[in-house]
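input
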Amino acid sequence: MELRHLKYFLAVAEELNFTKASEKLFISQPPLSRQIIELEQELQAKLFIRNNKKVELTEAGKYLQKEAKELFQKLERISLKTKKIAENVSGEFRIAYISSIYSAVISELIQYLKTQFPYVNFKLFEVSTTKQINALEQGKIEMGIIRSPIKSPTIKSYLWFQDGFSLVYNKNNIQIKSEEEILNLKNETFVFFNKDYAPHYHEVLLELCSFYGFTPKIIHEANNINSIVQLVKNGLGISIVPSNIAKNNPDSAIGFIELKKVNLFTDVSVIISKEDNSEITKTAVDFLLNKSSEH
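output
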C-alpha cells in the first residue's frame, strides 16, 4: 500500500463522488477508479458501495477513512517536528522579553545558548506581554519572558521569580529616607506605564499608591521601563518600578526605596509552546530556572 492510494481514497471518501474527487486531485476518473480497486484488492475489503445514483462508504471504508486521516495528521506533525529539529541545528531561535525584567541574566542566557548551539541565530525582542502571547501562539517566537498571569490553552509557563516593587526618585529633587515617608510624596507628579499598553501593571501601581494612602497624579506615561527611569532621572516625576530594575540600575543620581510593607509581588514567568519539546528550548528554560535565585 502506498500513500497515494490512501490520498486518493480519502478524496473519494470525502466527496463520495468519483468525478468531484478526480477534479480535486487533478487526475482523470479512470486512473482514480483503478487506484481504489487496487487498494480494495490489496486490503481484500470493499471500501465503497457504488451504484448509478450515489457512492457510499462501507463499514470497512468508514474505519479506513478515520485511521487514514489520523495517519496523515501524524505525518504532518512528524514533518513539522523534523523541520523544527533541523532549524535548531542551523536555524533561528527568537526570545521575547518585557522591558521591566531585562537583566544581565538574559545576556548570560544568550551567551550560554551560543556556546551550546553555535550554528543557531539567537534573536532578542522587547515585546509587551499581550503581544508575546499572540506571537508565541502564532509561532513567531520560541520563548517569552512576561509579567502577570497568563491564560492560553496552548502555552506552558514556568515561574522564574517573584518581583517586588520599589519607589524610584531623583535624589536631587526628592528628599526621602524610608518607606514611612512615602505619603509625603502624594503631591508629586508620577510617571507610569500607559494603561492601554500594560493594564494589569497600571492597576497594580494604583493599588500600591492606595495602600500608602493617596492617589497618584500621573502626568507622564511611557511604554518602556527604561524610559520611565530616564524621565525620573530628568526630574519629571517619581515612579514605582519592579525591584528587579533597582537591582540592575547603578545610576548614582537615582534613588530606590523597596516597598516591603505592602507585601505585593508579581510573577515573572518563562513561556513556551506546549508543543515545543526541542532540546534548545529545554536548555534555555533550564538555564533561567537555575538562575532564578539571582533575582
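quick obs: The first helix runs from residue 3 to 15.
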